[in-house]
Amino acid sequence: MASQVPAIGGDIRRLMRRCTRVALGTLVETGAPYVSLAMVALDHDGSPLLYLSDLADHSRNLKRDARVSLLFDGTLEAAVPLAGERATVQGQIGRTDDARLLTRYVARHPDAAAYAGFRDFHLYRVSVERAHVVAGFGRIHWVDGGSVSLDVTAVGSLPEDEPAIVAHMNDDHADAIQLYANRLLGRAGDAWRMVGIDPDGCDLRQGSESARLPFEGLIRDGPGARAELVAMARKARAMAAR
Q1: Residue 7: its pLDDT value, please?
Q2: pLDDT single digits (tens) 22-65
Q3: d(CA 230, CA 34)
Q4: Strand bridging mode 193-198 / 201-206
């Protein structure tokens, strides 16, 4: 039913946010498909971000034809992978020099900082046109990109508020971040940090390990983020006290 499409689009976007890597499909000069591995981050509106070298075959392909396909695989830990959740996202890719987006990408993938100044590496943003999700028996859908991506109203001022929120949480509320990771997500370790926040949730990192903490609903600004983070800290502390 048409009324279900926005919910499905949100499910796809939240799956995309959990993934740190994608299978990237581009077209070679003959028109044949070419698939490679790429690391991915997402902007606040859900647009995929890729940091690619000019020397890679996929970069040469996308310069000839900007159409791309990305497979977001949520089945990596599934006992029966074909029963797990995955989504194919199709769209147009283009270079961007937006410093905010590069900062967001490097926060998600710290290793990228080592070559962030290389002249042959460039940041790309994908405009989502449609997506196909397989999320178990009977849950196979095509949706248009507008139901996957968030509009400017939903995103609000959070892109501008993000650096201050992340710094405040890491500097003043490291104990809450540990509780999020240990109690809400069941992750081990005591050196978790927040590396990003967006309308759907926040990204945590410990060394090379990353974790995704989803929110109950969408947030769009600093006060909304504070209310959500405080509520989750209370929930985690209650779990720790049991």
Answers
A1: 86
A2: 999 999 999 999 999 999 999 999 999 999 999 999 999 999 99
A3: 45
A4: antiparallel
- Computed over every residue of the chain, the mean pLDDT equals 94
Cα–Cα distance for residue pair 142/128, rounded to 1 Å = 13
pLDDT tens digits for 172-224?
999 999 999 999 999 999 999 999 999 999 999 999 999 999 999 999 999 99
Phi-psi region of 166 (alpha: psi -120 to 50; beta: other; left: phi over 0): alpha
Number of H helices, E strands in the chain: 8, 10
Cβ–Cβ under 8 Å, residues 161 and 167 = no
Total residues found in the chain within this entry: 242
Q: How do residues 223-233 score in pLDDT, each as one tens digit?
A: 999 999 999 99
Q: Which amino acid is at 72?
A: F
**What distance in Å separates the CA atoms of residue 204 and residue 187, rounded to the nearest whole number?**
10
Q: How far is CA 62 from CA 28, 65, 132, 139, in A?
A: 8, 5, 21, 31
Q: Which of 40, 122, 54, 32 is nearest to 89 (CA)?
A: 40
* Rounded distance between C-alpha atoms, residue 111 and residue 113, angstroms: 5
Contact between residue 169 and residue 138 where contact means Cβ atoms under 8 Å apart = no
